[in-house]
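Researcher: I'd like a structural prediction for the single chain below. Treat it as a standalone chain; there are no partners to consider.
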Amino acid sequence: MRFQSAISQIHESREVIVVDDASSDGSDSVLKSYGEMIRLISLERNEGASEARNAGTAAARGNYLVYLDGDDLLKPWALLVYETRKCDCAGYLEPGIIVAFWKYWNAYQETLSGSYEPSVLA
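Model: Treating it as a single chain, here is the predicted structure.
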């Protein structure tokens, strides 16, 4: 499960919320085995990605959000990079959006195409 990359962040101040959008493949029992490492929100019926994100957003307690889908992966230092990019703007403006680095990989972890370096948008 790709959300393990969120659990593995070296940044200590994090909250991992996993929204189970009424999966029928037994994911819920696997998710429950993570105990207090994650906050599990189980939707009663499949509502789609937007509703799942809304449910996770409503449950979040932090100041910043990082959304991951089932095929997304965070490098262990990702949250530190986001925090650094935010601090780079100290005294100038408070960023509204931080656009993170991304890359496409195939099943063999080979880079396919595209990448984007972190930047801050007002």
